[in-house]
Amino acid sequence: EAGVAQSPRYKIIEKRQSVAFWCNPISGHATLYWYQQILGQGPKLLIQFQNNGVVDDSQLPKDRFSAERLKGVDSTLKIQPAKLEDSAVYLCASRGNEQFFGPGTRLTVL
Amino acid sequence: AQSVAQPEDQVNVAEGNPLTVKCTYSVSGNPYLFWYVQYPNRGLQFLLKYITGDNLVKGSYGFEAEFNKSQTSFHLKKPSALVSDSALYFCAVRAPNYGGSQGNLIFGKGTKLSVKP
User: Fold this and answer.
1) In this structure, are residues A105 and A90 in contact, taking their beta carbons and an 8 Å threshold?
2) Per-residue pLDDT tens for A61-86?
3) Do A103 and B43 touch (CB under 8 A)?
């Protein structure tokens, strides 16, 4: 079974620039999550999708972060404009019996 | 509010010795508890979970965890540590009836396990 795919693996940008991350969940998984993991901390949920609908985005900084899952499969997470404190690993997960995580995208904002 | 505490930033163990990584939780109602492991530059991997039933849960790679309701703890254990077990370990909790959400996990800050030969 193929796992959760994410790209890019690494991204370096300057503050105030925009960036987008892509996630392809495990086939057949209706629930998809985006987490932010700051160095030295555990992952924190940003947004949860059920198919193409948002279930929970209460912790998403909506003034700069956006996410979509238009066809209920792939998802993109965008940051515009980025701030220094957005430097983190962005993890995508999809859920079957358990949550399965992708390798993450490490974002560095200079 | 649900929360998870991992009181140790790092645990050092000699290979072959037993290991324990501690986790305590705070949640209303009966908790769903999880352990994940994270190797460098890789995503989190599921180790084990407790939903109900036996307090001792067995998982992947020889790990087990003991649920203790009175102490609100869910410590991860392994009888004999391997050098390859060195990684970052995360405890997580999910409340069984969390509003309209399904399966949101709240993670602890993680514990770095270092197993020396």
Assistant:
1) yes
2) 999 999 999 888 999 999 999 999 99
3) yes
